[in-house]
Amino acid sequence: MDVSHLIDSLNDAQREAVCAPPGHYLVLAGAGSGKTRVLTHRIGWLNQVEHVPPWAILAVTFTNKASGEMRARLEQLIPGGTQGLTVGTFHGIAHRLLRRHWREAGLPESFQILDADDQQRLVKRVVAGLGLDEARFPPRQAAWQINSWKDEGKRAENIEHGQHPVTRTLVQIYQAYEDACRRAGLVDFAELLLRAHELWLKQPAILEHYQQRWRYLLIDEFQDTNALQYAWIRVLAGSTGQVFVVGDDDQAIYGWRGAKVENVQQFLRDFPGARTIKLEQNYRSTSNILKAANSVIERNGGRLGKQLWTAGEEGERIAVYAAYNEQDEARFVIERIREYIAEHGEAKDCAILYRSNAQSRNFEEQLIQHDIPYRVYGGLRFFERAEIKDALSYLRLTANRHDDAAFERAVNTPPRGIGDRTLDVLRRRARNERMSMWEAALSELSMGNELAGRAKNAVKGFLSMIDEMAHAFAPSPPRGEGWSEELGLPKDSAPDNPSPNPLPGGERANAVLPLAEQIDHAIVQSGLREFYEKDSRGNAESRVENLDELVNVASRFEMTPDDIEAGLNELSAFLSHAALEAGEGQGESWDNCVQLMTLHSAKGLEFPLVFLVGLEEGLFPSQRSIEDEGRLEEERRLAYVGITRARERLVISHAESRRMHGSEMLARPSRFLGEVPPSLVDEVRPRVQVSRPLYAGRFAATPPSLKEDLPVKLGQRVSHPSFGEGVVVSAEGSGAHTRLQVNFESAGSKWLVAAYAKLTPL
Ligand code: ATP
Ligand code: MG
């Protein structure tokens, strides 16, 4: 058989990994050395040479985008196609398992995924319900703690809190939150994994089935697996599965979210006979870029130590731009992008990478102004926008009346006269009688006496509106036989049915009406469209546009073979995609757009032209990491990830003054910038500047060059009619366009146009 397409394009070390005999392998190698390529070709090799059928292979990637790319690549490598092959993220795979085995996992069939924002709202209600002080137990932190426990595989009852009262209360919140989720049929992100893991442990027949099915496990970005994911792999591998993991300890950037880089070494201990293969040649970047990356990461201690070299060209030097402020930074970056597009025509080759989502706005404004198409990954994603979640909450309720998170959102958006007092009555009843809000509402209507007539009518109106909506979508015919039958499991093997007496309203709605029409119908019937049309708060129009776009997205939506295999109906599949993909943009990938994303989400990707922006102390590295050596090293790895995304050109920028948290702050260039050897750097447009203790390292040596035609001298004390007294610290432009930066004693730092500034020298 001709397998040259699998091995010809590989170097010796890569080929060794791809063609290795059966066993466990760890491919440990630096950025851009072909780890992902090796993993993909290994799958091709297993299939073509070892005759492993696609359905026996499970490949785990870090993002949905990466899964899509891997599958597309595999389609080319495997002549018979990838049907039956499982490629996905841990969350995606766990989700599919739970859909297939909802009964055995103790979930209602129509369970919904709770995203981070809804989770926090639910925790908030739980905290209030327990009569706790929100200031002492902020919902955000409580949710974070719950997720960490889940990531470690811990349930509330397994947590030892000893005598510590705060921990004890947090465990209590965790317990109450779990109850609330169970009643409402909701599953948060961390729960997906934990449930699926428990499913393995509690249902040996199911575990055995998957152990026999997935005999080949391949995991990309292994350095960022957390304790639960690692346990998951171990359990699934059992004694027969063969595990192939690839990773780079220098790119471990999710420690703050519980990832354990120690898993890399643990792997060698836990999997008998596991071999390590190292790759050392980088194929991605020019040698200047690679040298810069190496020189930054070298400062970290405790590395596993890998060499990385390239046969590639030296390439251009790294351009560094010191911007006056964040707007100037954005202007500069977009100018460069325009030049690049004019020369090469490809917007998608350009990526702007930043430390925090909030930084994207300035770049977006500039891109809009210049009519350059762009796409933001992360940030406030489409499916996380309030109006989109409002609309989806109606659909969720029609699918599952006990979804309390959806109930709380839909019940008063748009407002329909169901006040907080009414809701409190329902919440109390729900809590006391351990029922969902929907059940509490029904029960209050039929036998309660706490609500006044008007409130009752409003609640009744809401319930019947949802019922009518569900009716319009049409109830489902019974679904075909599920996986449990195929496995020979008894039908009633569910440990405890969360909703033993489902109400008549609890039946599942299925897509008789096409999905897009369901959504359109819900948007109109709920009054959401009218509400947002009338809404006078600023961007009402774009909210209505977003609702229209939701209908469009739904009309283009197609179930994947995995969805169908998991037995999802169209609505459930759509809602799950909305929740799971919220972290990665809008699902659709537009063709030729500038890419904007955080450094965290750039992992594994590459672009010909990369802008690393905001390299300032306090921003990157972040303020919190500066005080903690461990965190600082993680930030440095993030810098390494950022630099190594660039193939041909790298541009780094920092602003001398930046508006953060509502006030102007002076910022020093990031230490990571100082760690790049000066010989590799081209400073862009050295400019007027006074020597002030802004710069560290080599920047301190930059001599201040003064301009002759300035109206005032740099360093001069001045007074301004509104801002008071200050010192001129910097200047830009010339003649009528001269702008001055003045540090005012009370008003802070300001940029002023010299011609209009009414400054009086003192
Ligand atoms: P990261 O650590 O960033 O995830 P990686 O180690 O997974 O990087 P890949 O993304 O697999 O690296 O490869 C980096 C680039 O080098 C890709 O464009 C890939 O196609 C290319 N590449 C890898 N190996 C070779 C090779 N032997 N010959 C030519 N190009 C290669
Ligand atoms: Mg990779």
From TrEMBL:
Record domain UvrD-like helicase C-terminal: where: 287-604
Name recorded for this polypeptide: DNA 3'-5' helicase
EC main group: isomerase
Region spans: Disordered: 475-508
Tagged with keyword Coiled coil: no
Highest taxon above the source species: Bacteria
Matching Gene3D superfamilies: 1.10.10.160, P-loop containing nucleotide triphosphate hydrolases, PCRA, domain 4
Reactions this protein catalyses: ATP + H2O = ADP + phosphate + H(+); Couples ATP hydrolysis with the unwinding of duplex DNA by translocating in the 3'-5' direction
DNA-binding as UniProt keyword: yes
GO molecular function: helicase activity
Residues that, per the record, bind ATP: A29, G30, A31, G32, S33, G34, K35, T36
Domain UvrD-like helicase ATP-binding: 8-286
PANTHER family the UniProt entry points to: ATP-DEPENDENT DNA HELICASE SRS2, UVRD / RECB / PCRA DNA HELICASE FAMILY MEMBER
Keywords: ATP-binding, DNA-binding, Helicase, Hydrolase, Isomerase, Nucleotide-binding
Family, per entry: Belongs to the helicase family. UvrD subfamily.
EC nos: 5.6.2.4
